[in-house]
Amino acid sequence: MLRIATVQAPVVAGDIPANAATAAALIREAATAGARVVLFAEKFLSGYEPALITADPRRHAVQPADPRLAPIADACRERAVTAVVGAAVRDEAGELRVSALVVGPDGELVTRYDKQYLFKSEAAIYRPGTTGCTLELDGWRLGLGICYDSGFAEHARAAALDGCHAYLVGALFSVGHGHHESRTWFPARALDNTVYTVLSNHIGRTGGWNTCGASAVWGPDGRLLAEAGPDTREIVLADLDPAVLAATRQSEPLLHDFRTGPAFRTGARPAAERLLHRLG
């Protein structure tokens, strides 16, 4: 059994120290409730805020060894928890990325997953990632995505074909159609691949978007397991259960039959390179 927390909380536009402090508090609260992994929304550390980030990337984006991440590292180390935290990142070459920073239970930065599918105007600001990312913890394999990545069935399928049991996505979904998208994509990705899917979304307004909250977890049969409200600070907990996963894959052999079916054999298998990172 692996307990995962997906969290939602207000962020302060462009204020990385304040948002890192919020993240650290949420990590400690989630750990007290038994969580081993804590998932945050897309660009949680700055807010979505493209205008602020492009105007002053040194201030509003983080770097791989950024001292402003220290509160998060301290909380992870103190509670032996892994955090997956959304951030705008200025990489080693000075390029901007939309990333998920993985801080391990020893407080060290394990890896950075960069969003592969950039949404509309993001492509003018950020560079896309080129590899998928799988985390391994206590025998569980967790695939990462960021927001628009989850709109592509192939992205989650690549994680499932890499042996992932769950698909974790930090995102920004807005009220109205964005909420509809999240309630269409995530149960579909879960059932298509018989994996748990986990969403962390923003609440309130960020970067010009009115967000819809409703961070949630779906089981490998696509059914909703736990869900936050639309606009409240919340920690949503769910237990990933190996017996439930095995039973679902027995009754819904979609992933097995894809592996042995004609589409897989004739080259329709997602070919994205993936990197594996073992935690703790």
TrEMBL record:
One of its GO terms (molecular function) is hydrolase activity. It comes from the Bacteria. Residues 2-242 form the CN hydrolase domain. Keywords: Hydrolase. PROSITE patterns: CN_HYDROLASE (PS50263). It holds the Pfam family CN_hydrolase. Gene3D superfamilies: Carbon-nitrogen hydrolase. PANTHER family: DEAMINATED GLUTATHIONE AMIDASE, NITRILASE-RELATED. Belongs to the carbon-nitrogen hydrolase superfamily. NIT1/NIT2 family. This is Hydrolase. It comes from Kitasatospora indigofera.
